[in-house]
Specification:
By secondary structure, the protein is an alpha+beta fold. The chain contains 5 helices and 5 strands, in the order E-E-H-H-H-E-E-H-E-H.
Length: 192
């Protein structure tokens, strides 16, 4: 749950195991959260490496290995800030608003920008893969060059999908999404 961690409420009782890195939404890379239902603790296969044994972690009170203290410290500061600003209700509302801004821009582009994930129930609030003109790689490269010139960095798509990818993790202010939407509209108008 790395990409959605800290962006919306989830019912943890629905899951046997939740694994999420904090490196996108709640802090620096190198810290992760694992929530394992009690009836699954210690049920790993005998071939499971000790570092991945939740049963051993439980017996050691979660100090089997040396943790990333700096990462945990930063995570605590970010979590405290999010709670002070209103907690999950506010964080979820902001994540949704940022995503809707980008989705709406794509929807209003008359097909210039197409969403890779078309079904809204599977669309992410934090990472939106987009193609230009159905996958025009030359135009997508031009987009990336012009975007970088305007200060929008790392909008290239995931290697498995290609195209573009807009990432809007918790640390990104809504003003950044507003500015990117303006650039998306300008690029569409100039290249359609």
């Amino acid at each position: 749950m790395t990409s959605i961690l800290g962006t919306r409420k989830i019912n943890i009782e629905r899951y046997g195991c939740i694994y999420a890195s904090f490196g996108k939404n709640l802090g620096p890379p190198g810290v992760c959260c694992v929530i394992v239902r009690e009836d699954l603790v210690g049920k790993e296969l005998p071939t499971c490496p000790s570092i991945m044994s939740y049963g051993l972690q439980d017996k050691c009170q979660n100090i089997y290995n040396t943790p990333n203290i700096f990462g945990i410290y930063v995570n605590e500061k970010i979590t405290a800030k999010l709670l002070k600003e209103g907690g999950m209700d506010v964080v979820e509302k902001l994540a949704k608003a940022k995503a809707e801004m980008i989705y709406d821009c794509c929807d209003k582009s008359n097909g210039f920008y197409s969403l890779v994930i078309k079904d809204p129930k599977f669309q992410s609030q934090t990472a939106i893969p987009i193609r230009i003109n159905g996958g025009d790689e030359a135009l997508e490269k031009k987009f990336l060059v012009e975007a970088e010139q305007e200060g929008f960095l790392q909008l290239f798509g995931h290697f498995s999908v290609g195209g573009l990818r807009v990432c809007m993790y918790n640390g990104l202010p809504i003003e950044s999404c507003q500015a990117l939407t303006g650039f998306l509209n300008k690029f569409c108008a100039n290249n359609q």
